[in-house]
Amino acid sequence: MADKAKFTQEMQNYYDTLPAFIQESISQSSSSFNDLQSLRAFAEELKQKKR
Asked: Cβ–Cβ contacts within 10 Å for residue 39, how many?
């Protein structure tokens, strides 16, 4: 599971704007998000798959 406790404030702010299904996918992901760019890339990939 992604460790949201390690999110920076900027990462948390971005996460909070995401749709619930993306937040859930991030929470369940085994990926490690070390910065906003990696979090954003993951979320954008999920958005593309949803379409």
From this structure: 23
40: which residues sit within 8 A by CB, 6+ positions away?
Answer: 14
Consecutive 10-residue runs of the chain (51 residues): their mean pLDDT?
89 97 93 94 92 71
Which pair of tokens denotes residue 22?
């993306």
Q: Which uninterrupted H or E stretch holds 14?
A: helix 9-17
Distance (Å, rounded) from C-alpha 34 to C-alpha 48?
Answer: 22
Other residues' Cβ atoms within 10 Å of the Cβ of residue 34? 12
> Residue 34: which of 1, 11, 9 has the closest Cα?
11
Which pLDDT belongs to residue 5? Answer: 87
